[in-house]
Amino acid sequence: MSDKLIVCSPLRPEARAVRRGIGADGQVLRTGYGAARAATAADRLRGVTFKAMAIAGTGGGVTADQQPGDLVVGTQVSRIGSETSVACPSAPLLAAELRRAGLRADAGKIVTVDHLFAHGQRERLVAEGALAADMESAMLLDGAAGRPTVVVRAISDTPRRPLLSPWAVPGGIAALRSLRLAGPALARWAEACGPRRVLLAGPRSFCAGVERAIEIVERVLEQHGAPVYVRKQIVHNKVVVTDLEGKGAIFVDELDEVPDGATVVFSAHGVSPDVRHEAADRGLQTVDATCPLVAKVHVEARRFAADGYQVALIGHGGHEEVEGTLGEAPQSITLVETAEDVARLRPRDPAKVAYLMQTTLSTDEAGGIASALLDRFPGARGPGSDDICYATTNRQLAVRAIAAESDVVLVAGSTNSSNSIRLVETAERAGTPSYLIDGPEDIDLSWLTGASVVGLTAGASAPPAVVGQIIDALSGLGPVDVSERVVATESIRFGLPKELKQ
Ligand code: SF4
């Protein structure tokens, strides 16, 4: 396959603007105005060798919030009146790249119309879910013949600034400027195009504790109706939190934000006894979504403290789970984040030292700190069974397995998700660059340039659907061969709190 990017721009000023923006990184073809010329150009293009095709021109905006110069990247392109549309799956990747370049860009449907906007047409297109209209893209796309394609339309006119108005000229100028500025991002998109393998880590995504916590919020919403208050993020994932907010959950940082008489759910990371007492004093109804494996660490902390042990809690300061565990016996537990912290420990009785761990640590890192502790206090007692939970351990083993074979590893998860961050670190320790992303929009196209094998996993709090969205977006950059490396199978399920069992 030639490494050429072909850019189809219907009109001379559009082609000139794109050419100035893209320079030597793409070949810009002026394909002509309207459906007939676009169809002719598509016929010609089918016989041309190129790596990827972009369609870049101006277009009409259809929604009230659009401004001249906004860019719309087509997720689907259809001809007006047609039931079928052509998908351009990499649109979210390019739209995000354009936003990172400082441009206003959205990904959405583009409809190719036969005539410039007639009365009422914009409203009909909005009803169809479109963001922009043009007169050529649906026909030009035929020329791609299965090769990677994107469609970018720079808005020249909007419902408030229509074509036949004094705004037409400044609108056109704003659109051409945006087309020129979009050039470098289009070049980066083309560089990222090519066939690749996607190696999935197995297991990945939701663990039993996260599934249970989400189900608890959903059940409480069903039983009590919205709103339902949740103290802290139920799990550390933006997509999950946004979804539950849409269903009526309100996330608060502290109980003083919860109105009297309301129901409040405690998150999967657990809470300290002080929080439970405060809720009881306020007469709030509470439902506890603490993961049973976090609750197990709390029980161990209480038991060691009651037996007179000084407990070293290996974990990361400020994490909600750590705060909850520390709160179980504040006088008897000391947070230990590094081997240096171990050296600073001054237990009352060196013969009565115990240690516990945050459930979502790196097994390597936590093991090193535990060894340092055992070197210093050979008789130190550890947890009855591993505190780092099965889900954390399995996901780290799985990401290590794919990292060895990948050029880059993408980890779906939010920036405040401890277990997801540990997956990035684990892949990097294996020598492979790795990035944490909430979804396809966070992928910087430069990460994919030259990456023919992409490892993909998801933290225990990241929804499986996000993994599907990422694969879909990658498939817009060229053929994708997906395979999976399974290092463990998981069948653990946790029951719901008794008040929610029906
Ligand atoms: S990562 Fe482990 S401790 Fe955390 S919710 Fe999942 S199963 Fe529970």
The largest sheet has its strands arranged as 3-7-6-4-8
Q: Which regions have little confidence, pLDDT < 50, spanning 5+ residues?
A: none
Radius of gyration: 28 Å
* Small molecules (ligands, ions, cofactors) in the structure: iron/sulfur cluster
> Which term fits the overall shape?
elongated
Helix content: 25-40%
Tell me the β content: 15-25%
Structure description:
This protein has 502 residues and is an alpha/beta fold. It is built from 17 helices and 20 strands. The chain has helices spanning 12-22, 34-46, 91-100, 121-127, 137-140, 168-192, 208-224, 238-247, 273-282, 292-306, 320-326, 339-344, 363-376, 390-403, 418-429, 445-448, 464-475; strands at 5-9, 27-30, 52-61, 71-79, 85-87, 105-112, 130-134, 149-157, 196-202, 228-231, 249-252, 263-266, 285-288, 310-314, 333-336, 353-357, 408-412, 434-437, 453-458, 480-486. It has a five-stranded mixed beta barrel, surrounded by four helices. The chain has a five-stranded parallel sheet with strand order 18-17-19-9-20, sandwiched between helices. Strands 11-10-12-13 form a four-stranded parallel sheet. Strand 1 (5-9), helix 1 (12-22) and strand 2 form a beta-alpha-beta unit. Helix 1 crosses helix 6 and helix 3 crosses helix 6 (168-192). The longest helix has 25 residues, at 168-192. The protein is elongated and about 85 Å long. The mean pLDDT is 96. Bound molecules: iron/sulfur cluster. Iron/sulfur cluster (SF4) binds next to helix 7, helix 10 and helix 14. Residues 207-210, 268, 291, 293-294, 359-360, 389, 391-392, 419, 460 line the site of iron/sulfur cluster (SF4).
